[in-house]
């Protein structure tokens, strides 16, 4: 089904393409940041730094 977008077809298509590109870039950025944060957390845990959330409620520092 081909829809007629009229004289503004190029603007509409370009707008949707730009919005889709921004969404893809944001998704890639989030995935790369998650990998980076996970790797940094592993390095900190390897060096002996522990998470406060990993302690039980009865543990005192």
Automatic annotation (TrEMBL):
Its main location: membrane. The keyword Zinc-finger does not apply. It holds the Pfam family CcmD. It is a single-pass membrane protein. Keywords: Cell inner membrane, Cell membrane, Cytochrome c-type biogenesis, Membrane, Transmembrane, Transmembrane helix, Transport. The keyword Transport applies. This is Heme exporter protein D.
